[in-house]
Design goal:
The complex is a heterodimer of chains A (about 325) and B (about 260). Chain A is about 70% helix and about 0% strand. By secondary structure, chain A is mainly alpha-helical. Chain A has a domain at about 40-230. In chain A, about 45% of the residues are buried. Chain B is an alpha/beta fold and about 260 residues long. In chain B, about 35% of the residues lie in helices and about 20% in strands. In chain B, a hairpin with a 2-residue loop joins strand 4 and strand 5. The longest helix of chain B is centred in the middle third of the chain and has 20 residues, at about 125-145. The radius of gyration of chain B is 20 Å and the shape is globular. The two termini of chain B are about 25 Å apart. The model of chain B has no long low-confidence stretch (mean pLDDT about 90). Classes of the chains: A mainly alpha (about 325), B alpha/beta (about 260). Chains A and B meet through helix 6, helix 7 and helix 8 of A and helix 2, helix 3, helix 4 and helix 5 of B.
Chain lengths: ~325, ~260
Amino acid sequence: MKTMKISRFWIFFITVLIVYGIGEFLIATGRIDSFYENLMITIAINIILAVSLHLVIGITGQLSIGHAGFFAIGAYFAAIFTMNMGLPFPVALILAGIVSAIAGFIVGMPSLRLRGDYLAIATLGFAEIIRIIFLNWEYVGGASGMTVTKMTTWQYSFIFLLITIIVIANFTNSRHGRACISIREDEIAADSMGINTTYYKVLAFVIGSLFAGIAGGLYSHNFYFLQPVNFGVLKSFDILIYVVLGGLGSMSGAIISATLLTLVSTYFQNFPEIRMVLYSLVLIIIMLYRPQGLMGSKEITDLFRRKKSVKGGPHYENIGT
Amino acid sequence: MKTSGLKPLLQVNQLGIQFGGLKAVSEFNLQINKGELIGLIGPNGAGKTTVFNMLTGVYEPTEGDILFEGKKIHGLPPYKITRRGISRTFQNIRLFAELSVLDNVRIGYHTIAKNSLLSSIFRLPAHFSNEKEMRDKAIEFLKIFNLEHLKDETAKNLPYGMQRRLEIARALAAGPKLLLLDEPAAGMNPKETAELMDLIAFIREEFDLTILLIEHDMKLVMGICERISVLDHGLLIAEGSPEEIRNHPKVIEAYLGEEVGENHA
């Protein structure tokens, strides 16, 4: 069993190295121009957003559709930290994540008592409040926006993407993650098993907001200009669509759909007039043929696990320490 | 009352709850000593499940108090009551339907494992030792319940009787001193019911349990309960041994209506 676990770890490690190596090689040797580098950064940002929302919706089962609010908080605060306070970029990113997590805690505490539709409306309202605050806050330029130096690189995006995936995957595959899943499955039963459901709902929400905030920081430093208009309701729905389309409860699904949809959306920029029509068409077609999402509730690793599970089961078992 | 003289495990005094203008349960008294197996019966809508919901913190009683091991537990949230040592099953099975049999039981161990959030995120040794312990314990547990060969099966795919069994296993995994079973035999055929009676007797010995159960199957209730309380319209109408309950005029009246001969049951 031990060898199996180690090999899984190495497979992950090698995959990461290859992806990073390819990206690094293409950029360093000038084989791709800044347009494609930007695309890679955008994909990384969207994956972070999708995976962080996946934790809230797919794992904990709390329908939050105000994720763009936390994204906005991260974007603006990271910009404030670098531009107005002169902090180094990575520090600003982490601080922006923390500010966003605090906002997540403040919003989550009262609103996670609500269920289903009510929670969705509350979070949607919150995201609008955030956007309007930034719209009227002269310190960050109000409606006319704020100038930000470009600092986001492919390396930063990749590292923070990696951290997001590892933290959320490790969280999910632990007793804490199982507690969150049990809330999704049946909150009353979870309660009766001794699980503090409020704690875990707020915790998932806070972790989700933390990474959305970091994604915001990466986003705001990827362009030269930051405006509240980028953080409207539609942005929230974009992120929601990544999660739903990937398959609720599947992290690999969220990653795949965020990647695909970002690519599709970028490609359709060649047809600006009918871009949104085509994009919507793609969504409709996927939902017609895969109503359970691209991956359903499976992870990509499950596809290789089927045979092994007879003797082994999940990879974190049987590790002597 | 074989353990009379000892402090009762659960003491319920004048318990009542009101939903708006409706008094669902009032002046309910119950005393359970350690090791007893008590039945709670009554016609449909009598308030039995409401009593369970108050005991487990799902509803907060509007009157009276509940003492568990001499300490007040009414007003605590459900998860804290579970941690004090009361766990339950549900009338309409509430398994974690999309999870495996193993994971259902493993979640029961949630409160026993102590590793912190950070140890899981950073995969520190505490995480692995806890996960291993939880998994080993859960598998041992499934062996006791003859469910081990199904550990990777999704809970919702199990046959009905096994789902009931799994729900009991899950409740026991939380390490209760008092187990509340809400209609464990509902929907079971006579053979399954007989197996269930054996199982209840077995876990009671094995885990040193005290059990309170709601049940409509009189054969089961009369067969295994040492004392029975009868609720009707939210009021306690009788209490006593199965023999006393069988012949109690008020009980017969509640079940069969008025004007029934005294010796029928």
